Amino acid sequence: MKFLLSKISDKALTFSKKIYFALAFLFIFGILADYFLNFLFGAPKKRTYDLAMKHRLTSPEPSNDIVILDIDERSLSIMAKDFGRWPWPREVFAEVLGSIESESPKSIIFNILITDPDLKNINGDKILDEITSYTEKTVYPITRLSAENDSESQLYVSKIPGTTLINNSEDKTVAVLLPFLPGMQKNMGISNLSSGKGSVIRSYPLRYSEKDWSMKSLVGKAVELSNTEKEIKEKIFLNWRNKKGDYSRLSFSDYFLYLQGMNDDFKFSFENKHIIIGASAPGISSPKGTSISSYTDDNLILATALDDALNNTDIKLLPNILSILITILVISITGYLFIIESNINVDKVFVFMKIFAAIAMYAVINLSNYFIDLTPVIAFGVVFYAIVKVISVLGRSSLYGATNNFSTAINSSNTNYSVIPFLNTNFEKKEIIDFVSKLQRRYSVSNVFLCKEQFQLAKISENLNEYSSFIVFSDSDKELFIDDLKNTLDDKRFVNFETFKINKSLIIDKTKIEIAQNNLTEIIKLFKQ
Questions:
Q1: In Å, how far are 109, 123, 177, 284, 506 from 184, measured between CA atoms?
Q2: Which residues contact 24 (CB under 8 A, 6 or more apart)?
Q3: What is the distance between the terminal CA atoms of the chain, rounded to a whole angstrom?
Q4: pTM higher than 0.85 for the full model?
Q5: Where are the alpha helices (DSSP H) in 38-72?
Q6: pLDDT one-digit tens code per residue, 18-27
Q7: Given Cys at both, which of 12, 80, 206, 354 links 394, Cβ 3.0 to 4.6 Å?
Q8: Phi, psi angle pair for 153, to nearest 5°
Q9: What backbone phi and psi angles, to 5 degrees, belong to 118?
Q10: Is domain 400-528 given the CATH code 3.40.50 in the classification?
């Protein structure tokens, strides 16, 4: 096993630079391939994005023009006295919608889906239908059902107001829940917020699109009704106002009682406001998980999406190519420092780059409406660094005389070893590396060792750390060995070439001690000269 480890470390030292080059090339190729396959460099990593959004230091302020008329627990309690349990009579909504529309709001999102007639109060449906037929700034919800049910539906896409067939696609039936009142059907928007059970809401589609057809969402339609010239994007990433408070929330019951002349304290004008009418009360609402909370009511999601769409504050994802280039840069710098065996502390440089990537990602989301996902930089970088570090450590263990490697050199067919001491300050680091390479080419990697910093600090002997030495093993004759070493190094700054015979009769540990003593003796000789 020891022999195997020594051989592995010898190979790591022999081919280290070639391995570094090959690894850097393979990683860069892998990064580019990943970019085109859209595996790691596709949408932002969900957990990373959520952590950044939830724990950032600041966020945009919620717009004062957006108001939530909330059907909360208080509303259910107060309204129950006159109208019983939910759902309330349709006249209630008719009165509220008619009143708000009369105040000239910019838009109203009525996020309550009414799909069936009230058989116990037909007159209430007529009143609501009449009011909604006159509303011009109100958008009503339509819900997309599973596409698996399309074949059972009798409703064609072209018959749904507001839909668009894409590329002249063939008309087909589609499964949806739409409001049954004709007055609500003239201005509708898709209300679906998530694509499946347990989905976390991070983005919002302003335009709901399938292969053959598309339709604006609730917010997309509200933006259109309030500003026909506003460009409506396909999808936006939500920029939560979680660090700057909440949107204005009015209890539905407070406003309704005001309309009944029973709440003189209500002082609020809906003129030029965007109003979202929806429920947050438990039992009648459907809260969703989002980047900032596991429990977020639909009203807040719609308000955030509307705010972002109107004011262009949505989170913009910076191009993936930036992350690609930064990742390639980190790998290139790391590989280069290992290849040239720089005096710079590679570990510190690598840690600095990783910390910088994390800080940069966090700073961007805090200081702007942009997000760049640098987790691939960290992921690829760590894997690359770990591999080259292992190779480097294995190679260094061979070069600097790890126990297994030293034992292998002693137990082999070698008969002699030479100690060549030198003063560190006489050579540049690159020169030392060149000399090591020369010796390794002549005597093989497994027979050449560089001994440096061999003495304890804070001791008298630490001054000797200014000296290092080469220990080279060979099976050549002593005199030939010395001449060959001098010719190989070919440098007059090396003055001592003392050669010793390996005592094969000693146990391996005794031989190592003997070699260490001879090494020290030669360094002291040079020190005294």
A1: 12, 16, 13, 21, 100
A2: 331, 332, 335, 384
A3: 43
A4: no
A5: 46-55
A6: 666 777 777 7
A7: 12
A8: -85, 155
A9: -90, 95
A10: no
